[in-house]
Design a protein that fits this description.
This protein is α/β, with parallel strands linked by helices. It contains nine helices and seven strands; from the N terminus they run αββαβααβααβαβααβ. Helix 1 crosses helix 7.
């Protein structure tokens, strides 16, 4: 029989600790597929955050470094200077990157750091109990906003891709989603483009990935995918926000 699907060697043969229906696993797989296809799996160093993907070093078959909360970009910048020939990425959630780590990511982009950030945005703090995140939508309930986010209290949700796209050093910025097979394929293509930017040493590259959190959203996995499509994508529109032109 013809093999149509198989386990990627980019993932270690272990069971992840993610909740059922969480799309972190999809993001992990396509990220590793990209590195394999680019021939850089064995020359890659990833930086893991504090958050749901804190144990990603147990799942991803590349060298990994753990960072303090929000400090992934600073760690990646140090690795870039020490090991200039390696492929380097940070893999961060919205609580890690858009809250405590907002200054780190802005200044990494400002400096035009030659690494890639994969930003997984599920609009809530996942690992620590479902608190409101900077990306939590208006009206969306959380454990620290049981009546839903209110603009007059918490402001509008941060659009990190749009913010970073205003910075000259961020030469490639794209937002993608994981709610449909077509969007998953698009997310993988975006990661290819981001790593191409890094390989050409053109500047900082950033891919925002809209993801689900069925547990903290209080939804079954399939309903969570629909909620992402109906609520997140209208506020966080998909597409390329900044590109140097060398990558289409």
């Amino acid at each position: 029989m013809k093999t149509v699907f198989e386990y990627t060697r980019g993932m270690l043969p272990v069971t992840t600790g993610y909740c059922p229906g969480c799309t972190h696993g999809i993001a992990h797989r396509i990220l590793m597929e990209v590195l394999i296809e680019r021939g850089t799996l064995g020359e890659t160093i990833g930086v893991a955050p504090i958050g749901c993907s804190i144990l990603s070093h147990n799942y991803l078959n590349v060298d990994m470094c753990e960072s303090a909360h929000g400090r992934g970009p600073a760690v990646a910048a140090g690795i870039r200077r020490a090991l200039p020939d390696k492929t380097i990425f940070t893999y961060q959630g919205d609580g890690d990157l858009a809250s405590i780590g907002a200054g780190e990511i802005v200044h990494a982009a400002h400096r035009g750091e030659k690494f890639t950030t994969i930003f997984v945005n599920n609009a809530i703090y996942g690992m620590t109990g479902g608190q409101m995140a900077p990306t939590t939508l208006i009206g969306q309930k959380s454990t620290t906003g049981v009546d839903g986010r209110k603009k007059e209290v918490s402001g509008m949700p941060l659009r990190m891709a749009e913010l970073l796209a205003t910075i000259d050093g961020a030469v490639y910025v794209e937002r993608v989603a994981l709610d449909t097979p077509a969007h998953v394929r698009g997310a993988k293509a975006a990661m290819h483009r981001a790593f191409e930017i890094q390989e050409k040493r053109l500047g900082f590259s950033f891919v925002e990935v809209l993801s689900t959190c069925p547990t903290n959203w209080g939804l079954p996995p399939t309903a969570a995918l629909k909620w992402l499509a109906d609520n997140m994508i209208p506020y966080f529109p998909l597409g390329i926000l900044r590109t140097p032109g060398e990558v289409k």
